[in-house]
């Protein structure tokens, strides 16, 4: 069974940084693309970033490009999201996700990031 | 940019059938698979339909998905509505660069 466990969320001041982690198990992590999806309070799901299996290819939503960096450690079965220059608009639950079928995601439980002074 | 548009909310009575639409902004919605996720308050999304019309094991056959090329839309139909179906539903597909795109979500109320 696919398990994704996010950590690293919390309260951060505007302009600050935070690194999220997602520990994966139950599948062959080193062969899967990994994604981050976020959901602002009371709002919908928004795709944030993805990384390919060996970490050499990454993509970002325009709203986070240049501020967020996705990376992975296949030896630790973990994917990361480094978030810099945070603003209130980045306040959200951040979900780690991977494809469980050819097209649909399996999700972690999410970690809440609050950007506030 | 490719977008998916859903109604903000729908409501129906227990035992009835409800359909939630998901309309693509450009291109053909049939070019990439459409998924549907159910999200209850405080929980992560779960898949109820994948690859346009496939149900994961454990999802009742009251849930079905379809594609209508003429209207460039996908639909999620839930028959025999139950109180437990009350949730937010999101459609999801991919854009031309294969990045995931989500609809804005539909709040289903079972009256």
User: Biggest interface, and residues per chain?
Assistant: A-B, 21 and 25 residues
Q: What's the overall geometry of chain A?
A: globular
Number of alpha- plus pi-helical segments of chain B = 0
- Beta-strand content of chain A: over 45%
Provide the residue-averaged pLDDT of chain B.
95
How far is the first residue's CA from the last residue's CA of chain A? 40 Å
Calculate the terminal CA-CA distance of chain B, rounded to whole Å.
36 Å
**Oligomeric status of the shown chains?**
heterodimer
Radius of gyration of chain B equals 13 Å
State the helicity of chain B in percent bands: under 10%
- Tell me the number of strands of chain B: 10
Weakly predicted, low-confidence segments of chain B: none
Low-confidence stretches of chain A: none
Taking all residues together, what is the mean pLDDT of chain A? 96
What is the 3D form of chain B? globular
Question: Please, could you describe this protein's structure?
Answer:
The complex is a heterodimer of chains A (117) and B (111). Chain A is mainly beta and 117 residues long. Helices cover 0% and strands 51% of the residues of chain A. In chain A, strands 2, 4, 5, 6, 9, 10 and 11 form a seven-stranded mixed β-sheet that branches. A four-stranded antiparallel β-sheet of chain A has the order 1-3-8-7, with no helix packed on it. In chain A, a hairpin with a 6-residue loop joins strand 5 and strand 6. The mean pLDDT of chain A is 96. Chain B is mostly beta strands and 111 residues long. In chain B, 0% of the residues lie in helices and 45% in strands. Chain B has strands spanning 4-5, 9-12, 18-24, 35-39, 46-49, 63-68, 73-78, 87-94, 100-102, 106-110. In chain B, strands 2, 4, 5, 8, 9 and 10 form a six-stranded mixed β-sheet that branches. In chain B, strands 1-3-7-6 form a four-stranded antiparallel β-sheet, with no helix packed on it. In chain B, strand 8 (87-94) and strand 9 form a beta hairpin. The model of chain B has no long low-confidence stretch (mean pLDDT 95). At the A-B interface, strand 5 and strand 10 of A face strand 4, strand 8 and strand 9 of B.
């Amino acid at each position: 069974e696919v398990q994704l466990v996010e950590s690293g969320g919390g309260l951060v001041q505007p302009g600050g940084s935070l690194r999220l982690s997602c520990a994966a198990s139950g599948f062959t992590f080193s062969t899967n693309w990994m994604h981050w999806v976020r959901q602002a309070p009371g709002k919908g799901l928004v795709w944030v970033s993805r990384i390919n299996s060996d970490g050499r290819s990454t993509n970002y939503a325009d709203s986070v490009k240049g501020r967020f960096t996705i990376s992975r450690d296949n030896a630790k079965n973990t994917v990361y999201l480094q978030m810099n220059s945070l603003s209130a608009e980045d306040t959200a639950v951040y979900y780690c996700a991977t494809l469980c079928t050819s097209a649909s995601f399996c999700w972690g439980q999410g970690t809440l990031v609050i950007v506030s002074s | 940019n490719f977008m998916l548009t859903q109604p903000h909310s729908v409501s129906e009575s227990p035992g009835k059938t409800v359909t939630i639409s998901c309309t693509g902004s450009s291109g053909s919605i049939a070019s990439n698979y459409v998924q549907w996720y159910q999200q209850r308050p405080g929980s992560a999304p779960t898949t109820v339909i994948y690859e346009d019309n496939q149900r994961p094991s454990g999802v009742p056959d009251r849930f079905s998905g379809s594609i209508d090329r003429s209207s460039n839309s996908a639909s999620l139909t839930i028959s025999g509505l139950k109180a437990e179906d009350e949730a937010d539903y999101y459609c999801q597909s991919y854009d031309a660069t294969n990045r995931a795109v989500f609809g804005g979500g539909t709040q289903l109320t079972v009256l």
